[in-house]
């Protein structure tokens, strides 16, 4: 990490968690779980499912490698799903697009839940079908 004032001895064992770091006043594991589940915020607030994960990631990515990895995986899926939705919307004209749109919606729900479960176990979940835009 560039410009980081964090040192290697702040890691807990071999994990990517820091001893004292509590993003937004909560446990690091809880925060990473909520990062994945924040995709569902769009069901309540328009564009909340896009804005909230981005804000959660950008405000803490320089302070935690774990948050940075989760955030990149979430954003890569969000960008990929937008591309898939655009492709599906175009293909609606020939009928197959509806199936693509449904598949993207189902994948988004399933992947977010799987990501939250993996985060609760302290693991980083890489979303399947996500194109790696942010490395």
What does this structure look like?
By secondary structure, the protein is mostly helical. Helices cover 55% and strands 0% of the residues. It has helices at 28-37, 48-60, 65-91, 97-120. The chain has a domain at 31-120. The model is unreliable at 1-17 (pLDDT under 50). The protein contains 4 helices and no strands. The longest helix has 27 residues, at 65-91. It is elongated.
In short:
By secondary structure, the chain is mainly α.
Which secondary structure elements does this structure contain, and how are they paired or packed?
Blueprint: H1 28-37, H2 48-60, H3 65-91, H4 97-120
The stretches of 5 or more residues where confidence is low (pLDDT under 50) are 1-17
Distance between the termini: 13 Å
Mean pLDDT across residues: 85
Q: Count the DSSP helices.
A: 4
What share of the residues lie within helices?
40-55%
- Number-wise, the strands total 0
Strand residues, percent: under 5%
| SSE class | mainly alpha
Which features does this protein show?
135 residues; 0% strand; mainly alpha
């Amino acid at each position: 990490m560039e410009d980081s004032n964090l040192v290697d001895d702040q890691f807990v064992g071999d994990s990517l968690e820091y001893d004292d770091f509590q993003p937004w006043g909560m446990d690091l594991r809880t925060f990473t779980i909520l990062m994945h589940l924040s995709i569902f915020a769009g069901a309540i607030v328009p564009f909340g499912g896009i804005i909230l994960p981005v804000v959660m990631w950008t405000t803490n990515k320089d302070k935690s490698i774990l948050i940075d990895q989760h955030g990149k995986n979430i954003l890569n899926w969000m960008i990929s799903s937008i591309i898939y939705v655009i492709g599906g919307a175009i293909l609606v004209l020939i009928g197959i697009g509806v199936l693509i749109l449904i598949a993207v919606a189902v994948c988004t729900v399933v992947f977010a839940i799987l990501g939250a479960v993996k985060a609760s176990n302290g693991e980083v979940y890489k979303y399947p079908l996500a194109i790696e835009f942010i490395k």
